[in-house]
Structure formats: C-alpha cells, structure tokens
Amino acid sequence: MQMLYYNKGVCLDELGQHQGVLENFDLAIKYNP
Questions:
Q1: pLDDT value of position 10
Q2: Distances (CA, A) of 7 to 12, 33
Q3: Which of 16, 19, 28, 30 could form a disulfide with 2 if both were Cys (CB 3.0 to 4.6 A apart)?
C-alpha cells in the first residue's frame, strides 16, 4: 500500500502539486514507518 502513495507523490511532484506530495508521502510513511 505504501508504494501506491509513494508513486502518487512522485507523480504529483512532477505536476508541481507539492501539497499533494507531502500528503501522499505522509501516508506512505504511515503504512510503512
């Protein structure tokens, strides 16, 4: 599950949506600390 949020964060970073990056990376860390 954590890879889903990590990959989504990477995609959002490429689109310049930095707030979404932080939210998705936080979720990735939550599922795999």
A1: 96
A2: 9, 16
A3: 28
- Give the per-residue pLDDT at 6: 94
* Distance between CA atoms of residues 30 and 23, nearest Å: 11
Farthest CA pair distance, the chain: 26
Asked if 1 and 8 touch (Cβ cutoff 8 Å), the reply is no
What would the mean pLDDT of 9-21 be, rounded to a whole number? 96
Residues 6+ apart with CB under 8 A from 5: 24, 25, 27, 28, 31
Residues with Cβ within 8 Å of 22's Cβ and at least 6 positions away in sequence, in order, are 9
